[in-house]
Amino acid sequence: MSTAIRENVDLQAFNTLGLRARAAHFVELTNEADLAPLLARAKAEAWPVQLLGGGSNIVFAGDVSGLTIRLSLRGIRLISDSQAGAKIVAEDCVIIEAAAGESWHEFTQYTLAQGWAGLENLSLIPGSVGAAPVQNIGAYGVEVADVMHSLRAYDREQGRVVELSAADCGFAYRDSIFKSQQPGRYVILSVRFALSAKRPLVLGYGDIQTALATAGVQEPSAIDVAQAVIRIRQAKLPDPAVLGNAGSFFKNPLVPSAQIEQLQAHFPGLAAYPAQLSTPGWQKVAAGWLIEQAGWKGYRRGSVAVHERQALVLVHHGGGNGAELLALAADIVASVQARYGIHLEQEPVLMGG
């Protein structure tokens, strides 16, 4: 095994919130062949295993015991029709595969530069390709579930590499089998996407339409949509390289339509959207609106705060720890619950502590 395990490693640089934490044992995985021996070593030492991608969806609640594996696999390749087999979804589509450690945003821009549409609405989302299916990341009407073809993963139960189709991944709103049903079982190695130069653009969100109109774009291309999304995100969200954050800290809650009607009678400005669920009668409520109306937007407590431009984003100004951030999040959840009777669910996953 060529990959060296280090001890007592500072993890502050490996999470976009910039929270202080240390890993008891840490390894950067750059070669797939090293994974099985690393897992065998962890088992022999009775070390719990934690998987770390780009660190953009992690809250370190404290130091991390056991072995932390940072997935830094690299590589992008076009999969031929014959390799993709019968799973190819349309005659004009291409299957493109990216290794788990590739930057998500850089990968989206690469595909667009090749003339392949599908990922434009997901531009500028921080994190890695391998982490994208775990959270089923989404923005402006598109989710990973809509464009993913399949993925390769090491199944720790079977001790071998397996391929899972999009249907196998149990995708739901900001969820998958990797996050809630079988966390830790699979180590995602690479992800394949079905893209096409002829794929219809998703333009339903008003922010995108406004951004395109402001730029004078009347017949947008996929690249035009990506640039619009980038401008929107830059205007609304802080750059993690400048101000520590993990993007949206809370999910937009799913609420029964009957409850929404009752709430809108008391709070006319409450924003709700179709939930895209197989079960009718539910809608998605804008969590940012709930938090802002409850008075939290721009609130600061020591080193942590609610962002001044987007109440859905919690930020870390430096020098703090996960306990401080989680305490603020808990107070926000309690406040929204008391005011609206709606429970907010945290998006980033906890590690350590």
UniProtKB/TrEMBL annotation:
Pfam families (alphabetical): FAD_binding_4, MurB_C
| Gene3D superfamilies listed in its UniProt record | 3.30.465.10, UDP-N-acetylenolpyruvoylglucosamine reductase, C-terminal domain (3.90.78.10), Uridine Diphospho-n-acetylenolpyruvylglucosamine Reductase, domain 2 (3.30.43.10)
Q: What class of enzyme is it?
A: oxidoreductase
Q: Where is the FAD-binding PCMH-type domain?
A: 19-198
GO molecular-function terms, A-Z: UDP-N-acetylmuramate dehydrogenase activity
**Which pathway or pathways does this protein act in?**
Cell wall biogenesis; peptidoglycan biosynthesis
By its UniProt entry, which SUPFAM superfamilies does this protein fall under? FAD-binding/transporter-associated domain-like, Uridine diphospho-N-Acetylenolpyruvylglucosamine reductase, MurB, C-terminal domain
Query: Which sites are catalytic?
Result: 174, 248 (proton donor), 347
> Subcellular localization, per the record?
Cytoplasm
User: Which keywords does this Swiss-Prot/TrEMBL entry list?
Assistant: Cell cycle, Cell division, Cell shape, Cell wall biogenesis/degradation, Cytoplasm, FAD, Flavoprotein, NADP, Oxidoreductase, Peptidoglycan synthesis
Per the record's keyword annotation, is Cell membrane included, yes or no? Answer: no
Cofactor(s) recorded in Swiss-Prot or TrEMBL: FAD
Catalysed transformations (reactions):
UDP-N-acetyl-alpha-D-muramate + NADP(+) = UDP-N-acetyl-3-O-(1-carboxyvinyl)-alpha-D-glucosamine + NADPH + H(+)
The EC designation for this entry is 1.3.1.98
The text of the family note is:
Belongs to the MurB family.
**Purpose:** Cell wall formation.
Query: Which HAMAP family does this UniProt record tie to the protein?
Result: MurB
The name on file for this protein is UDP-N-acetylenolpyruvoylglucosamine reductase
Q: Which organism is it from?
A: Paraperlucidibaca wandonensis
Query: Per UniProt, what is the name of the gene that codes for the protein in this document?
Result: murB
